[in-house]
Amino acid sequence: MSPRPMVRPGGRSARVQASVHAAVRELESEVGREALTVPMVATRAGVTPSTIYRRWGDLQELLSDVAVERLRPETPPEDRGNLRSDLEAWAEQFLEEMVSPSGRDYIRDALLGDPDGSNAGQCSAYAAEQIDVILARAAGRGEDTPDVETVLDHVVAPVMYRVLFRPDRLDAAYAHRLVTGFLDAPA
């Protein structure tokens, strides 16, 4: 008789990740990110440093993983009753979160510790999921809708470029201009 595979929904791996992520967040607020070390995080999380190195590789990859989790939206996009209003409200909130000092730190961390691009892909997927909700609601109301990639190209991409490389004059008006620019463009 072969041994039964051990099934642990969530299991130790999920508990370790949650504990390590919590330790990073706590220590960042207590000592600052520049003072963080793997041994310090491991001690706070109640794991060995080798556990962190085995799972994340190094501190930067750990910070990247934590940043991606922090960039995950906590709520669905607001329903304001029509596509334009929904996209403008979402774009304004997205820009506000990304341009904040902590948002910029999370973006940097997510990208710096991302050797294979999976964290960047996850961040992109979060935005795409939010946009998909907005577009599905609009389609359900009978509105003509662009596809998700079009919104990513015309709203998210310019926001991210500006946040990373030209962070001046980023406000709600900028987010609204992006939405208006592509919704009002001739087909």
* Separate helix tally: 9
CATH homologous superfamily label of the largest domain = Tetracycline Repressor, domain 2
Oligomer: single chain
**Helix-strand topology string:** HHHHHHHHH
Give the low-pLDDT segments: 1-9
Query: Major sheet: size, sense and barrel closure?
Result: none
Describe, in plain words, how this protein is organized in 3D.
With 187 residues, this protein is mainly α. It has two domains: 11-57, Arc Repressor Mutant, subunit A (Orthogonal Bundle); 71-183, Tetracycline Repressor, domain 2, CATH 1.10.357.10. It has helices spanning 11-31, 38-45, 49-56, 59-71, 83-99, 101-112, 118-140, 148-165, 172-183. 24% of the residues are buried.
Summary?
The protein is built from nine helices and no strands.
Descriptive labels:
Tetracycline Repressor, domain 2; 187 residues; disordered N terminus; Arc Repressor Mutant, subunit A; 2 domains; mainly alpha
